[in-house]
């Protein structure tokens, strides 16, 4: 369940409030068609936020400075807070960031992805470190308190295999993969000459690219792991935990991939009545024009 979608990057900022509202309504329908039941929308546009409120759309206004909503930033990104989020510990996070925690139960599938620096037996946060012992204690706590049905963990840091090797239990419904083994470094990729820095990490880039290219409703976690393991040559990816979970499909979404991977709406096309009839959209597989046949247009009524 995706709780909230921030739309300012999907909707062209030059659209007026009426067009923006119609486009956001279209996106709600498109994404709901593919099984992504969005609970709330977010924008930093005051005009669009007011239009949503008039249309009784559940939404949130962010600040101009914040841009995309961020739950925890800066000094709030600590091992203690990370573990509190996973354990649903609202008391520890009272007054920290927005205080959001996981509220999952025994029927939920939980995915945890972590990328940063690391060393044997630890992963690095901006100002602190999380030990393998404490991470696995947190995982065990979640299992003992029925906070997930199955959990999948992807970690990309140097020596990250040491976070699970001979530590992660294989009977607590957790499947984990790491970029290197317990002794190797993890490597960056896609060097940008203009910026003078790497734009990605090899392991992360490969599993994300595979997720864009493969049919995730038929691809298993095991298959994705093997593809990534083969494609990264600088280190040796590892897998740990309950191997039966690796036989599950990466996704359960039942939808055409070109809709599921909607990125942004480029242009809208109106009929003579002024209502949106189709839109040119960008997807993970390219740019296409989609007709708005079964979707409705919501007229804005100014009650102010």
Secondary structure layout:
Elements: E1 4-6, H1 17-33, E2 40-43, H2 46-54, E3 59-61, H3 79-87, E4 109-115, E5 118-119, E6 122-124, E7 129-131, H4 132-144, E8 150-156, E9 174-178, E10 188-192, E11 197-201, H5 202-213, H6 221-231, E12 238-241, H7 257-260, E13 262-270, E14 276-283, E15 286-291
Parallel strand pairs: 1-2, 2-3, 4-8, 8-9
Antiparallel strand pairs: 5-6, 6-7, 9-12, 10-11, 13-14, 14-15
Protein name: Legumain
Family: Belongs to the peptidase C13 family.
Pfam family, one: Peptidase_C13
Outline the structure in words.
This protein is an alpha/beta fold and 304 residues long. The chain has seven helices and 15 strands. The protein has helices at 17-33, 46-54, 79-87, 132-144, 202-213, 221-231, 257-260, and strands spanning 4-6, 40-43, 59-61, 109-115, 118-119, 122-124, 129-131, 150-156, 174-178, 188-192, 197-201, 238-241, 262-270, 276-283, 286-291. The strands form five sheets. It has a four-stranded mixed β-sheet with strand order 4-8-9-12, with no helix packed on it. Strands 1-2-3 form a three-stranded parallel β-sheet, covered by helices on one side. Strands 5-6-7 form a three-stranded antiparallel β-sheet. A hairpin with a 2-residue loop joins strand 14 (276-283) and strand 15. One of its GO terms (biological process) is vacuolar protein processing. Pfam families: Peptidase_C13.
């Amino acid at each position: 369940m995706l709780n909230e979608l921030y739309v300012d990057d999907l909707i062209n900022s030059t659209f007026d409030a009426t067009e923006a509202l119609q486009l956001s309504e279209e996106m709600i329908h498109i994404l709901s068609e593919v099984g992504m039941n969005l609970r709330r929308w977010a924008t930093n546009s005051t005009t669009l936020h007011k239009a949503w409120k008039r249309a009784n759309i559940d939404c949130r206004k962010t600040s101009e400075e914040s841009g995309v909503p961020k739950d925890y930033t800066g000094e709030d990104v600590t091992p203690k807070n990370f573990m509190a989020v996973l354990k649903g510990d609202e008391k520890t996070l009272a007054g920290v960031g927005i205080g959001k925690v996981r509220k999952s139960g025994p029927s939920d599938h939980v995915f945890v992805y972590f990328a940063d620096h690391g060393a044997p037996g630890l992963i690095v946060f901006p100002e602190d470190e999380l030990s393998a012992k404490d991470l696995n204690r947190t995982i065990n706590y979640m299992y003992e308190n029925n906070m997930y049905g199955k959990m999948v963990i992807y970690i990309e840091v140097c020596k990250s295999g040491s976070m699970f090797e001979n530590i992660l239990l294989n009977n607590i419904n957790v499947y984990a993969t790491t970029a290197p083994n317990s002794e190797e470094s993890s490597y960056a990729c896609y060097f940008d000459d203009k910026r003078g820095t790497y734009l990605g990490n090899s392991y992360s880039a490969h599993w994300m690219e595979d997720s864009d290219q493969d049919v995730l409703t038929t691809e298993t976690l095991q298959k994705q792991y093997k593809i990534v393991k083969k494609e990264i040559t600088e280190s040796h990816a590892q897998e740990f935990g309950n191997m039966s979970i690796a036989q599950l499909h990466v996704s359960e979404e039942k939808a055409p991939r070109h809709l599921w991977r909607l990125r942004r709406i480029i242009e809208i096309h109106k009929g003579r009545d002024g209502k949106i009839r189709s839109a040119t959209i960008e997807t993970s597989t390219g740019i296409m024009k989609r007709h708005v046949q079964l979707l409705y247009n919501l007229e804005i009524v100014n009650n102010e």
